[in-house]
Structure of 4-carboxymuconolactone decarboxylase:
Amino acid sequence: MAKKQTAGRDALGDFAPKFAELNDDVLFGEVWSRESKLSARDRSMITCASLMSQGLFPQLEAHMKMAKANGVTKDEMVEIITHLAFYAGWPKAWSAFDIAKKIFD
């Protein structure tokens, strides 16, 4: 089961309360909790692939940590990054590997 998310409220609760609510309650509360449709592990792999492809590395780091907690292995993350290098770009893969090494080593 997906862990209750409070990152939105922690980071933006006072500044952008509606955005924080949507982040924590809708995205992570409703969407991520639909594990009968797609597991948290699979959602993590898809999310990491999307973030790497877009070059959104600060968010990728947070989601790689979540992916590890959701059961994605080092070997799987290495394979995801290697595969995406050919579709998203070699420099993005290098950046993603820097993050993965910190998290999975």
Observations:
- The chain is about 75% helix and 0% strand.
- Residues 39-105 form a domain with the AhpD-like fold (CATH 1.20.1290.10).
